[in-house]
Amino acid sequence: MGKSKPPPSEAELRQQRLAAALRDNLKKRKAQARARTDSAAESDDSAGKPGNRPAKR
């Protein structure tokens, strides 16, 4: 059979952890951006309706 790989070095393990953390961070930031876009779209939709305007004084 084939030779087994030697265990990863500390530097390789660190790089793998960093890559995983960056991927997770990117996913969170994309989700936050989508949430902001969705809430902005909802507020834009409701702003145009006549019943949602504040009363004038």
Describe the protein's architecture and organization:
This protein is mainly α and 57 residues long. 67% of the residues lie in helices and 0% in strands. It contains 1 helix and no strands. It is rod-shaped. The mean pLDDT is 83.
In short:
By secondary structure, the protein is an all-alpha fold. Helix content is 67%, strand content 0%.
Unreliable stretches? none
The overall pLDDT, averaged over residues, is: 83
Main sheet overview? none
Distance between the first and last residues' Cα: 85 Å
Class by alpha and beta content = mainly alpha
| Count of extended strands | 0
What is the percentage of strand-forming residues?
A: under 5%
Succession of helices and strands: H
Q: What would you call the shape?
A: rod-shaped
Tally of DSSP helical segments: 1
Work out the helicity level. Answer: 55-70%
